[in-house]
Amino acid sequence: MEKVLDIVEAIANEKGLKPEDVKEAIKKAFIQTAKKVIDPDFDFEAVIDEETKKITVFRTITVVADDDERLQDEHLSKTVVAISKARKEYDDQIEPGDELQEEYDINSYGRTAASNLNRELKYHIQRLVEDQLHKKYKSKVGKIVSGRVTRVDGNNSTYIELDEIKAVLPQKNRIKGESFKSGDILRAVVRKLHVDKEQGIYVELSRTSPAFLEALLRLEVPEIQEGTVVIEKSARIPGQRAKVALTSLHPQVDPVGSTVGTNGVRIKAVSEELNGESIDCIEYSDILELFVSRAMSPAIINSVEIIRNEHTNKPEKAVIKLPADQKSKAIGKNGINVRLASMLTGVEIELDEVETKDTDTPKEEQKEGVEALEALFK
């Protein structure tokens, strides 16, 4: 093939590939073509000459002793030559272990070779493009991407056109109540990559995962983006409510206040993207009792007792004592508050009502109980 380096440069520019990778792909295409049209057992190599810009295909043959076992093997015998034969046909100074090279011209094998080479080139370049896309979007898992909706199928799966790859938002990964139509600009987080024989490589998106909420917060809150405020954990019931546990790495930065923003402007912007999902922000604590008490917000509780596994000492359940008038807040509508608190903290939560001594000032006593709990772990 004449001036193969020009072809390398053209393909690299068109596909956005590295020239070195394209060279290797072309070499593989020539080698596979040679194996198909000449002999599959031959040990072929391909070399590109930087000056002439041509590619040469040759067969490598290893010189072995006359009694070498490989000479008796039907397949291996095609990659070796006995020393006596090599000295007679090639060079009388040859020694065992030396390698001989026999050049082949693929063009001389006619249309069969040309069509095979064309298929191999397309195949190897396509694999190269897919490998590059796979690496690129593998690094985007958990990050936000945006694209234009191209269609919505009968299963309510939404198809999105990203820069150079297909993406799909399945109905299960769509927030309840959302609907999209062709032409809409959609934002979602990359959930995973798929490689399908028929569809090739494509991206699965999600708008329901906690990762989408966290990614939106990073975009909206500079302190999170800079690393001053850290999202420790998050939990969601998509489209309804979420809880986010935050830590500040700077003593003068309030993690909850900076995330919520002045008059709630930051958290409202995230909530609007999530179809009105309510978002509770709390301060994280590595003291589980305190973390559980905060996660139960807006309910005000009296105390938390952690029940641990007697063998592993791992926390299994949190027993929360709280006044009767706080129980509905603790549970939340359809049990959503206690479910989210359990998801966020990683423990089962059991609510235990206690009688308040003074029914006229229950909130004051509850507030004192929370303050006492926090003071206990300071």
List the SSEs and their pairings.
Layout: H1 4-15, H2 19-37, E1 44-48, E2 55-64, E3 80-82, H3 83-89, E4 99-104, H4 110-138, E5 144-152, E6 158-161, E7 166-169, E8 185-196, E9 200-206, H5 210-220, H6 222-226, E10 229-237, E11 241-248, H7 255-260, H8 265-273, E12 278-283, H9 288-295, E13 303-308, E14 315-323, H10 327-331, H11 336-345, E15 348-354, H12 362-376
Parallel strand pairs: 2-3, 7-9, 11-12, 14-15
Antiparallel strand pairs: 1-2, 2-4, 5-6, 5-8, 6-7, 8-9, 10-11, 13-14
Helix pairs in contact: 1-2, 2-4, 5-8, 9-11
Largest sheet: 5 strands, mixed, barrel
**Alpha-carbon distance between the termini?**
76 Å
What structural class should be given to the helix and strand makeup? alpha/beta
Count of discrete domains: 4
Strand content: 25-35%
**Judging from the principal axes of the Cα atoms, what is the shape?**
elongated
* Average pLDDT number: 89
Overall number of strands: 15
Short descriptors:
single chain, 378 residues, alpha/beta, N Utilization Substance Protein A, Chain:P, domain 4, OB fold (Dihydrolipoamide Acetyltransferase, E2P), GMP Synthetase, Chain A, domain 3, 4 domains, five-stranded mixed beta barrel, four-stranded mixed sheet, 15 strands, 36% helix
